[in-house]
Amino acid sequence: DANDVKIVSVQSEQFEEVQMHLSVTEKGIARMLPQKELIVPAKGSLQLKSGSYHLMLFNSISPLKAGDKVALTLNLADGSKLPVMAEVKKAAGMKSQSEPMKMKMDASHRCY
Q1: Could you tell me the end-to-end alpha-carbon distance of the chain, in angstroms, rounded to an integer?
Q2: How far apart are CA 64 and CA 95, in angstroms?
Q3: Which residues pair with 84 in a beta bridge?
Q4: Cα separation, 19 vs 10, whole angstroms
Q5: Distance CA 14, CA 30 (A)
Q6: 11, 18, 38, 95: least CB-packed within 10 angstroms?
Q7: Three-state DSSP class for 28?
Q8: Cα(52)–Cα(14) distance, rounded to whole angstroms?
Q9: Exposure of 20 by Cβ count < 10 A (0-12 exposed, 13-18 middle, 19+ buried)?
Q10: Residue 22 to residue 55: CA distance in whole angstroms
Q11: What residues are paired with 27 via a beta bridge?
């Protein structure tokens, strides 16, 4: 739709890189698929959450803890920028950094 809002990239001064992903389960295997854009439907909404569309933030410039705020800039297809703030929350079910997560990555950088 012509009135949809398209997010084409996300940036943060607090992280080296921000990627847009969609989590899907195919044949019982969970995958994170990189997205070239996220579409917010006209007169609708798009929720970023675990197990669906989400942002992956890589290489924090400084340590973060629950309650901290992260500034993000959404870069839209029309060239405009939308600043947003996100609150750092403790992830349910995530292992601490002292317990490495076992993860395999194939040649196309898909984790499994």
Answers
A1: 34
A2: 16
A3: 72
A4: 7
A5: 28
A6: 95
A7: coil
A8: 23
A9: buried
A10: 9
A11: none
Amino acid symbol at 25: T
In the block, residue with structure tokens 């990555």: 105
Give this prediction's pTM: 0.74
What is the residue whose two structure tokens read 């970023």? 48
Ordered DSSP codes for 82-99: EEEEEE--PPTTPPPTTS
Cα separation values, 86 from 22, 35, 107, Å: 19, 20, 32
Pure H helices in the chain? none
Q: Per-residue pLDDT tens for 19-72?
A: 999 999 988 898 999 999 999 998 899 999 888 999 999 999 999 999 999 999
